[in-house]
Amino acid sequence: MTKLENMAADEFKKLPKKKQKEINKAKRIPVAKPGHEFNKSNVRCKRWNTDE
């Protein structure tokens, strides 16, 4: 890690846990497995894609 990355990690640790969780959730992009697609209303629900 570079010096700048280490400084950013230290600043991140100083944030409240609630804010850290919000940032981590924003970083994650949900990706469906091959043969699955996400239901538009709920990202956690997956439906089998019969087109593939």
Concise overview:
The chain is of the alpha+beta class and 52 residues long.
Please supply descriptive tags for the structure shown above.
52 residues, alpha+beta, two-stranded antiparallel sheet, elongated
Description of the structure:
With 52 residues, this protein is of the alpha+beta class. The protein is 44% helix and 12% strand. It has two helices and two strands. The protein has helices at 3-14, 17-27, and strands at residues 36-38, 46-48. A hairpin with a 7-residue loop joins strand 1 and strand 2 (46-48). The longest helix has 12 residues, at 3-14. The radius of gyration is 17 Å and the shape is elongated. It starts with a helix and ends with a strand. The mean pLDDT is 77.
Poorly predicted runs of 5 or more residues: none
Relative helix content: 40-55%
Distance between the termini: 41 Å
Basic shape: elongated
Number of DSSP E strands: 2
What proportion of the residues form beta strands (DSSP E)? Answer: 5-15%
**Largest sheet, strands/sense/barrel:** 2 strands, antiparallel
Mean pLDDT: 77
Topology:
Elements: H1 3-14, H2 17-27, E1 36-38, E2 46-48
Antiparallel strand pairs: 1-2
